Amino acid sequence: MAYGSLLSTAAYTAAVDGDRESARTLITEASHTAARLGHERPRSIVGFGSGTVGLYQVSIARVLGDSGAAIDAARRIDPAAIPLAESRARYWSDVARAFHQWGKPEQCYRALCAAEQAAPDEVRYRKPIQKITADLLQHPQAATLPGLLVFAERTGTHT
Question: Which superkingdom heads the taxonomic lineage of this protein's source (predicted)?
Fold first, then answer.
């Protein structure tokens, strides 16, 4: 389990560093490790399995700027099956960020609301969320996003 967690973390780090090839190689190995493990172990100290790898796949694709791949990876995950509220909020935040990169404000806002519903403290006063929210407030479709101004206030986004 620790090996798979290390692979996933290394894959994400490679993505942040812009090393697409290493990120993909490492997350593929993490996926194979999870498959060999055979089941999720959410209550263990390390908490590793195919679900964890799926969450990393969303994050890695988003960090690499592959919005479509991030959304495709997200669609393979049942957010209700994510045991920790903070992890569900992270999932939805990554989905929101991918939709934001992709230029899909309505889907982005819905994902932000889902993140807030999952774990409000994981959304409030977070700089990336504030940036996205500020961008949404300036978007031509802002008026069609019900509750956006109130959401902006809750997240500490200055308009």
Answer: Bacteria
